[in-house]
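Narrative of accomplishments. A recurring question from our advisory board has been how the design workflow behaves on a single, concrete structure rather than in aggregate. To address it, we present the structure tokens for one chain from the evaluation set, followed by the sequence designed for it. No filtering or post-editing was applied between the two.
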């Protein structure tokens, strides 16, 4: 991390933070009984308000790129490239958002290739607006039933607000968000089959293409063949394949 920090900071400043790369908030070293653990804190890709119902970790590789049965049993599994393809999933964003997103992506992966970094992913989280609306209605109905039962069927009138200072801070509507806070969020376009909000950012960027990775590339090439879409390839090849794949998922 320290080896790339100076160039990384310079890159973030030059692009005015207009990037899909991780936003590092802190670096810590914890020492417990002589054992050192290093931790990095980054900005959350997802929203604190809009629930993500499905998420994918995409590398642009197809070899062993599907979620395990153990992973699928989780409440919110992380699916992978082959799952994305088999699900027939697409990211439905308009032409302007698509252009801006791909410009960021291209600039970012070219920078990562310069740093000899690879094996990173695009984290994609999907918020289903209609599902969220339905769940909110059901939640309100359940709360109303509980209040009616506890109060003998009479629902009291809420007290007057002690202040009108919050009146101007109207809550966001369904699928709405503050782009200054949810910086990785993009709405689906009007003709999308479903009304969705996508959260997309690059994660896990700290893997160098060193001797160990070169050996892994050679071993996987022997096992799967030279033409196989393995994840362990040199940074230039990785960045190009990654960009080309992500470009195909945008509709």
């Amino acid at each position: 991390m320290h080896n790339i920090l100076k160039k990384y900071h310079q890159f973030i400043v030059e692009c005015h933070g207009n990037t899909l790369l991780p936003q590092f908030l802190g670096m810590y070293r914890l020492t417990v009984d002589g054992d050192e653990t290093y931790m990095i804190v980054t900005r959350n890709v997802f929203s604190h308000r809009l629930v993500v119902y499905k998420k994918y970790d995409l590398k642009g590789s197809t070899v062993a790129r599907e979620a395990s049965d153990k992973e699928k049993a989780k409440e919110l599994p992380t699916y992978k490239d082959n799952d994305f393809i088999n699900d027939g999933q697409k990211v439905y964003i308009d032409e302007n958002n698509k252009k801006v997103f791909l410009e960021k992506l291209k600039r970012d992966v070219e920078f990562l290739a310069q740093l000899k970094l690879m094996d990173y992913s695009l984290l994609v989280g999907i918020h289903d607006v209609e599902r969220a609306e339905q769940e909110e209605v059901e939640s309100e109905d359940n709360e109303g039933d509980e209040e009616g039962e506890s109060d003998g069927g009479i629902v009291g009138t809420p007290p007057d607000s002690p202040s009108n200072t919050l009146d101007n801070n109207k809550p966001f509507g369904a699928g709405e968000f503050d782009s200054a806070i949810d910086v990785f969020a993009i709405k689906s376009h009007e003709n999308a089959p479903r009304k969705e909000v996508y959260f997309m950012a690059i994660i896990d960027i700290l893997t160098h293409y060193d001797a160990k990775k070169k050996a892994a590339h050679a071993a996987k090439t022997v096992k799967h063949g030279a033409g196989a879409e393995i994840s362990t390839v040199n940074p230039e090849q990785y960045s190009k394949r990654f960009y080309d794949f992500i470009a195909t998922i945008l509709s």
